[in-house]
Automatic annotation (TrEMBL):
The gene is pgi_4. PROSITE patterns: P_GLUCOSE_ISOMERASE_1 (PS00765), P_GLUCOSE_ISOMERASE_2 (PS00174), P_GLUCOSE_ISOMERASE_3 (PS51463). It is an enzyme of class 5 (isomerase). Gene3D superfamilies: 1.10.1390.10, Glucose-6-phosphate isomerase like protein, domain 1. This is Glucose-6-phosphate isomerase. It is found in: Cytoplasm. One of its GO terms (molecular function) is isomerase activity. It comes from Thalassotalea insulae. Catalyzes the reversible isomerization of glucose-6-phosphate to fructose-6-phosphate. NCBIfam families: PRK00179.1. Keywords: Cytoplasm, Gluconeogenesis, Glycolysis, Isomerase. Pathway: Carbohydrate degradation; glycolysis; D-glyceraldehyde 3-phosphate and glycerone phosphate from D-glucose: step 2/4; Carbohydrate biosynthesis; gluconeogenesis.
Amino acid sequence: MSSRQSLSSWKKLTQMALEKKSQHMNDLFAQDSKRFDKFSIKLPKLLLDYSKNLIDSETMNTLFELAHETDVTGWRAKMFDGEKINKTEDRAVLHTALRRTSETPLIVDGENVTESVKSQLEKMESFVNNVREGHWKGYSGKRITDIVNIGVGGSNLGPQMVTEALKHYSDNSVNVHYVSNVDGAQIVETLRPLEPEKVLFIVSSKTFTTTETMTNARTAIKWLTAASFDESAVAKHFVAVTANSTNAMAFGIKKENIFDMWDWVGGRFSLWSAIGLAIALDLGFDKFKELLAGADEMDQHFINAPFEQNMPVIMALLSVWNTTFLGAKSQAILPYDQTLHMLAAYLQQAEMESNGKSVTWDGVEVDYATVPSIWGELGINGQHAFYQYLHQSNNVVPADFIGSVESVTPVKGHHETLMANFFAQTQALMTGVNEQQVREDLKAKGRTPEYIDKVAPHKVHKGNRPTNTILLKRIDPATLGSLIAAYEHKIFVQGIVLQICSFDQWGVELGKGLAASIQEELEGKTIADNHDCSTENLIHYYKQTKIN
Ligand code: F6P
């Protein structure tokens, strides 16, 4: 038995889960008219209602006990203080330092992180203003109109998700584009309408070794120099964001065009650094600072609020409850704001790359379920696609519903329709409708007894499907910053409770290594005899088909 399973709170929760599985939330609501007051948190611009979960006060208290027994408080302090809690990579985890307002020095390996962050933010600000105001010129002397961010994973998803979410706040000084896929189709289509003399590329890669990004960056250089007939144009059209300036310079990017990343920032938590340059170029530096301030506000809430009032802590504990104790296998992210259409993709990396692991930080196989698979879509589109599954399949999928009180668009007659659906869905998922109600309803509609017998079982919704509702006042840079930071801290707390190192990602290495050697085979540089017969035949078929 693992050390987690022997905790007294863990044992109690295991027992409680058995009891709770036979209860229905309808009864819990009927017994307690104060559920919403008890199980919701209101922050100035953000509300979390978690009352539609299979919980009661005893469950929550035991979950808080679990957070105490696993020393979430101690680990939280270690993270914010810059201790090397990323044990397998021997690194600090300090994305919070990127948005910290305090001027107090924070020292990691002899470096004052506070100073380094400040100096990069200043460098970003002056660069952003230069480009947006048209002082930064391309090789032909024209101002920059288009920014192309080349990066993948954390060097793409965070900035792109935020750019999409905050489009409304862009003054269109520049147009921002993102290229992540090594499939040439993406870069070709992105560059097709652009004029090389007016394009600025940001090569975003913490390691500056990622094949997809390097390949796209090489293609971008060729595209630019084919138009400029001059290698020196690269200096005016390429900047890099990286923790590996040596590689970036070897690639041809000028030292002064390199923005620093640090090994104490994980890629999936890096949008607050210069990895967010495209966001700042799109919105202006003041708005970027508002995004950071919103995240810092959530950091302060996470540090200071007692667990009982702590949004990220509660979100994490509910995920552990639903997954590890109640057996859910996946979790849906269902934003209703169009602007958040990339949120699920972003959180897939954030949560699954962080906690999709099955050994503890001490390298021992875990004997409990860790995190669910994360998936999702815009909720309103999902309603007409996969909500059938959410309502009636025999898998229970806990879901986060995210919506806003105010719309960012002035168009009338849309938001109430959107939000009516938003509220209706969580109610329906919770209450369901039983067979007796279905039969009565059909009878009242004048249906024949034969028809009622045939159709009634299909119309039953068991309900009892857990949801969290996150209601934002309105999507703006600060609120979005708070929302993202809440999820970041949720992921951190989950990792601590489940005893998982959330900040490494060894599971991506095996495939990467194999791809590198198979690429040599595809290019005819090597012949390998170490594949299984499926892979070998697939490669053979690919090569043969290509030749013929
Ligand atoms: O392969 C996974 C990964 O390392 C992610 O963790 C990271 O966000 C992404 O690739 C991109 O890495 P880089 O910024 O070093 O190019």
